[in-house]
């Protein structure tokens, strides 16, 4: 039997039943990587010798009667996570030789759960792109169409899962970096509630792995089924043992409902600042139809939905104020001069990006206060609804675009070009207020490409969108292996 595309849940059952060993699963995964990854380029840092040793250890542990949630399951890890003995570069050439001395907290949790780590997956330069390519490791291709991107910045992980190289992977998300690759590659991913999963050791080199509370950014699971997402989230979730973990234990509330017909869902497919492409709109509608057919209460509009344009502006300002915080002083002064020249009437996203780049602390506090008002608005909305269904980006995966000036790039939406970074507004809808969001495959491939949507849920009620994802998977189908 070929095991590469079996779910983690299925592999765990087969291991328990003695139908296969972890050593056999690991050898089969490595063989597939060595055969197919030459054209995909998802696994940028293989760790096969240690993986085989870990697999043998997992088989021995099972023989002793040990029970762990991921015991013997082959997984991968995004390159941006520290792993002792392997390089962590974030795709930055100046750090190609940086090797951390200790594992990131999430890598430690994977290993403690019994997972077999096959290696690390590719990322864009500094994790700051919607694609995954860099000078050190090259370009990761979409398994469905090698001329197109796998997404970013967790694009290597998404491509590895879609190609059958592993059963699970861990990534991170600041600007849709879990959800966009999942959408482009036809897999599942979950952006947890902000602060739900400890991030220590997911840090740009050569910074020390300190337990920092990140703004906007999270770490999270990627898989080929919704149930596998929940399995991996349960391993990842919880506070850092160096800080909040000293006093707090995590207990996530159960999903609000178990039956599809009990869910109350708001479906949104239009944004005031960028159009939604026809392929994505069709997939949103397909999910909406499935919800209605399953008896769910579905609405297309609600006065409780926070203002989407204001949300996008706030997200853009907060995102870019953090992204350029360590720019050289000379570049910062140039941006200040450009920002000062903006008209007060210019409320475009381009202007929001530039203003965010030169935020003062006072500016950031004001934006953060507006964010709290949006969070309050979401709490009111989730008193009436259980989830929001909306796009992740306006289009399926687009062709590789390696223009070094990201601000010059364009995104084609049904034949019309728009500013490349404007497509982030949908990802930012959940990121800015820190809400959980589950990316699911949501349509039969459009022109050979998968299309996904996201299910946004209430803060710290991550099990609600995950359960809805599982029910929709049963209703409309889920992952399909690339042809």
UniProtKB/TrEMBL annotation:
The keyword Hydrolase applies. The keyword Hydrolase applies. Its EC number is 3.5.1.4. It is an enzyme of class 3 (hydrolase). InterPro entries: Amidase_CS, Amidase_dom, AS_sf, FAAH2. Residues 24-464 form the Amidase domain. Keywords: Hydrolase. One of its GO terms (cellular component) is endomembrane system. SUPFAM superfamilies: Amidase signature (AS) enzymes (SSF75304). One of its GO terms (molecular function) is amidase activity. This is Amidase.
């Amino acid at each position: 039997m070929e095991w590469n595309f079996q779910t983690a849940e299925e592999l765990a059952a087969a291991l328990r039943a003695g139908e296969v060993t972890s050593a056999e699963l690991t050898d089969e995964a490595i063989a597939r990587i060595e055969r197919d990854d030459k054209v995909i380029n998802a696994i940028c840092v293989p760790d096969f010798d240690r993986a085989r040793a870990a697999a043998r250890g997992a088989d021995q542990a099972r023989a002793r009667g040990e029970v762990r949630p991921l015991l013997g399951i082959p997984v991968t890890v995004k390159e941006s996570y520290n792993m002792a003995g392997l390089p962590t570069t974030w795709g930055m050439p100046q750090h190609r030789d940086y090797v951390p001395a200790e594992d990131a907290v999430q890598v430690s949790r994977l290993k403690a759960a019994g997972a077999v780590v096959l290696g690390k997956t590719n990322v864009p330069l500094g994790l700051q792109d919607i694609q995954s390519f860099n000078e050190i490791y090259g370009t990761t291709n979409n398994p469905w169409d090698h001329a197109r991107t796998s997404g970013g910045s967790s694009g290597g992980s998404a491509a590895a899962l879609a190609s059958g190289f592993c059963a699970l992977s861990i990534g991170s998300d600041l600007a849709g970096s879990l959800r966009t690759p999942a959408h482009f590659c036809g897999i599942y991913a979950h952006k947890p509630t902000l602060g739900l999963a400890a991030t220590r050791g997911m840090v740009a080199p050569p910074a020390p792995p300190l337990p920092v509370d990140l703004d906007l950014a999270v770490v999270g699971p990627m898989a080929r089924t919704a149930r596998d997402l929940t399995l991996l989230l349960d391993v990842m979730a919880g506070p850092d043992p160096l800080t909040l973990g000293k006093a707090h234990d995590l207990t996530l509330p159960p999903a609000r409902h178990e039956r599809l017909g009990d869910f109350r869902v708001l479906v949104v497919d239009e944004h005031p600042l960028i159009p939604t492409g026809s392929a994505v709109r069709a997939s949103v509608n397909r999910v909406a139809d499935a919800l209605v057919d399953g008896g769910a209460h579905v609405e297309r509009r609600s006065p409780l939905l926070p203002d989407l344009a204001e949300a996008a502006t706030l997200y853009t300002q907060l995102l870019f104020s953090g992204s350029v915080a360590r720019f050289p002083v000379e570049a910062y002064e140039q941006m200040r001069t450009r920002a000062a020249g903006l008209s007060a009437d210019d409320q475009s996203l381009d202007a929001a990006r530039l203003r965010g780049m030169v935020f003062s602390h006072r500016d950031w506090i004001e934006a953060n206060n507006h964010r709290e008002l949006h969070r309050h608005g979401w709490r009111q909305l989730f008193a009436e609804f259980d989830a929001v269904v909306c796009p992740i980006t306006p289009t399926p995966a687009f062709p590789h675009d390696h223009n070094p000036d990201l601000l010059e790039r364009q995104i084609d939406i049904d034949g019309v070009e728009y500013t490349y970074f404007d497509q982030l507004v949908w990802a930012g809808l959940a990121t800015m207020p820190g809400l959980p969001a589950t990316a699911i495959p949501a349509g039969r491939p459009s022109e050979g490409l998968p299309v996904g949507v996201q299910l946004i849920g209430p803060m710290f009620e991550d099990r609600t969108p995950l359960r809805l994802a599982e029910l929709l998977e049963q209703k409309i189908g889920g992952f399909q292996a690339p042809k």
